[in-house]
Amino acid sequence: MPETEKSNRFYDFVRNIETNISKLATLEIKTIVGDYQVDQDENIQVKKDGEFQILQTRINLIQGDMVTNISSELVTDKYAWLRDFHARKEERGHEIIDNNVKAIVSLYELYKKTKSVNLNEENIDDEDAEI
What we know:
It is a single chain. By secondary structure, this protein is of the alpha+beta class. The protein is about 45% helix and about 20% strand. The protein is built from two helices and five strands, in the order αβββββα. It has a three-stranded antiparallel beta sheet with strand order 1-4-5, covered by helices on one side. A two-stranded antiparallel ribbon has the order 2-3. A hairpin with a 5-residue loop joins strand 4 and strand 5. Helix 1 packs antiparallel against helix 2. It is elongated. About 0% of the residues are buried. The model has no long low-confidence stretch (mean pLDDT about 80).
């Protein structure tokens, strides 16, 4: 593979990581109760004559800002269990983001180590191939 093609692949890989990391900057957790559907763009659509309540949290992971929207009915004692459920989802969301970032960093480190490997049909199974 020519050196410029290797360089371009590495550049594309780094750009892809940067793009996806920026998408990881906001964690959004939604807990929805009621008669609704979610469209292909993940927008909530109330079904005809349907009602729903929502508990939604957006967390900016870079700035640390957190905004929670909650339907007034869900603030009552009757829905304390639902608020607890939502809080556990927030905790799990943080774990998932943390694991995703670790996975991206690991992939990046692996790519840096292996980008110069020159494998072909003759040495692909060779245990002595240098990395």
